[in-house]
Backbone:
């Protein structure tokens, strides 16, 4: 049984890797755009899932790192002429530094207070950036790569963070840190008395999530070319991530994959009616919480016992 | 120092308005242990309803409250009874996320129904001021806001302390199972509590609509203000809600005076984060 599943899993993963890896070869411009957005949202959703699904940290402030990652690459490339990919990487670094600073305040808060604390931080950043002359207030910045970039280059960068985020969470959950996280999720107090350093684990997850979110946002804004505080620091980012993860399955590695796919399909079909797609997503998310709180993938796993990427070591 | 006294006076009066913005969130947080992330959007929905009724009936915004109060009560009651009650449990996350979903649905519904344009509830009161001698004058609207805020807070306090259903709500809040054994229908009492909280949100929405401009996406801004006041003042404390409102409003208005109007919101957020970090249970909160 286990062997057959292993083979199926291997086949599915190989097919996915080959398929996504060769999109620029076989796909149209549109296919490339579609799968690039999918990879970017996948990485962002996977990071929210790492916090909410595994570390018990409901963050409503992921847009802090989206905005900071985007602005870092914008400032470094257009003011200092820095290499665009170096700028993207540094966007991850500034996001980690911000996360460290935030943790001084918000790691004293629990549950709902933590959620709103992260949100308030993001709102404060939004106000600050839209009043800051250095980044041209609310009118925004252009991101100028020194030599033009091909769409395929951006696509591959997105693929790296998309696939990388899945691999990272998979590896992480199978490490010592992952064992600690799962013990903590099952019973925080007992695991703490058994030597799991709850505070440190949560902090690590928060920093990792900031790093990947900042880098991913940098790639997204390299594609967008233009960044504005009202868009970059908007709660809309986190709204989308929450919906994706809930629909796909919170606390599963595959959930964000499915959720990101559903979101990108829906947003492409309803591209001209953003409000309608958000209405539908909100409706689906509520129905999912009411009838299948573990999301689509979580419910399937429970019913079929099949996990594509199991956090458990065999 | 020119105008400082005026700023402080405005800040104090604005604090009253902020208190009524926060009171519903605080009540529901205290009683049902739910952070209603849709609180701000319910306020803005009431503001749009009022706008609609003003143009339909040609009356003053305050008169539309007569229709808005029962509508908001029914909406809040239904929301709790048919949606939120189903996900209440040990975990705080499912109700939080359902409320989040409701918030996004309301925002996008308002965006489609009322367009993204800025609106305000105009009335004869908007421009009236009331001179207090010297250079001080009081905008009549701010005075009305403050008066209604006091009335709402006092009215809700009286209701919870002195009526049968109010006692039931407090009992269910103290111990859900004991209250059930005593014959309290907790599902109904929670829904009534949410209905009342939504009514206060409706009143707050109309007052905010008369005082400032609003958009379909204004809800979260007021949710954060309300949450900030609950945090500063301490959970479930009526006095704390009023004090929290005054502190936040003064921080914003004095912050705008020192650093410029663009930083008004930022000063409020910074005060909030400092209070959260130093005293997470709030200034007047217990423990």
Residues:
């Amino acid at each position: 049984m286990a062997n057959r599943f292993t083979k199926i899993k291997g086949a599915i993963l190989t097919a996915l890797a080959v398929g996504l890896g060769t999109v620029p070869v076989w796909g149209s411009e549109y296919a490339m755009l579609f799968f690039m957005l999918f990879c970017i949202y996948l990485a962002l959703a996977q990071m929210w899932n790492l916090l909410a699904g595994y570390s018990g940290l409901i963050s409503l402030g992921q847009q802090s790192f989206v905005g900071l990652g985007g602005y870092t690459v914008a400032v470094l490339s257009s003011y200092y002429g820095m290499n665009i990919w170096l700028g993207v990487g540094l966007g991850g670094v500034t996001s980690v530094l911000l996360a460290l600073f935030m943790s001084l305040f918000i790691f004293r808060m629990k549950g709902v207070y933590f959620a709103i604390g992260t949100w308030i931080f993001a709102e404060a950043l939004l106000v600050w950036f839209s009043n800051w002359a250095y980044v041209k207030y609310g009118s925004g910045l252009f991101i100028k790569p020194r030599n033009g970039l091909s769409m395929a280059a951006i696509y591959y960068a997105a693929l790296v963070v998309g696939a990388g985020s899945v691999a990272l969470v998979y590896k992480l959950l199978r490490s010592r840190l992952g064992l600690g996280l799962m013990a903590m999720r099952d019973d925080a107090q007992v695991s703490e008395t058994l030597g799991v350093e709850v505070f440190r684990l949560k902090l690590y997850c928060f920093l990792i999530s900031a790093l990947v979110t900042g880098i991913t946002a940098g790639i997204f804004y390299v594609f967008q070319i233009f960044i504005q505080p009202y868009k970059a620091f908007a709660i809309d980012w986190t709204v989308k991530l929450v919906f994706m993860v809930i629909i796909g399955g919170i606390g599963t590695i595959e959930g964000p994959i499915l959720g990101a796919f559903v979101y990108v399909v829906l947003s492409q079909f309803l591209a001209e009616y953003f409000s309608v797609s958000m209405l539908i997503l909100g409706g689906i998310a509520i129905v999912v919480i009411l009838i299948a709180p573990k999301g689509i993938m979580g419910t399937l796993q429970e019913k079929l016992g099949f996990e594509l990427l199991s956090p458990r070591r065999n | 120092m020119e105008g400082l006294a005026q700023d402080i006076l405005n800040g104090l009066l604005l604090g009253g308005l902020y208190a009524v913005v926060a009171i519903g969130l605080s009540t529901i947080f205290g009683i049902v242990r739910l952070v209603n992330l849709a609180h701000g959007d319910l306020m803005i929905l009431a503001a749009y309803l009022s706008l609609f009724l003003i143009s339909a009936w040609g009356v003053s915004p305050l008169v539309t409250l007569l229709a808005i109060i029962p509508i908001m009560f029914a909406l809040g009651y239904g929301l709790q009874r048919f949606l939120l009650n189903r996900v209440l449990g040990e975990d705080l996350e499912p109700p939080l996320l359902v409320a989040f979903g409701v918030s996004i649905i309301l925002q996008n519904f308002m965006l489609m129904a009322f367009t993204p344009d800025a609106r305000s509830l105009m009335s004869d009161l908007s421009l009236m001021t009331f001179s207090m001698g010297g250079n001080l004058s009081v905008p009549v609207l701010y005075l009305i806001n403050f008066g209604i805020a006091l009335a709402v807070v006092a009215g809700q306090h009286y209701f919870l302390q002195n009526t049968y259903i109010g006692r039931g709500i407090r009992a269910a809040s103290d111990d859900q199972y004991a209250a059930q054994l005593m014959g309290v229908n907790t599902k109904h009492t929670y829904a009534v509590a949410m209905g009342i909280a939504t009514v206060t949100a409706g009143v707050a929405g109309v007052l905010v609509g008369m005082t400032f401009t609003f958009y379909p996406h204004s809800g979260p801004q007021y949710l954060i203000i309300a949450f900030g006041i609950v945090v500063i003042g301490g959970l479930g404390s009526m006095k704390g809600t009023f004090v929290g409102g005054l502190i936040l409003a003064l921080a914003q208005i004095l912050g705008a005076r020192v650093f410029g109007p663009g930083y008004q919101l930022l000063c409020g957020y910074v005060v909030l984060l400092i209070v959260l970090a130093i005293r997470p249970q709030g200034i007047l909160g217990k423990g």
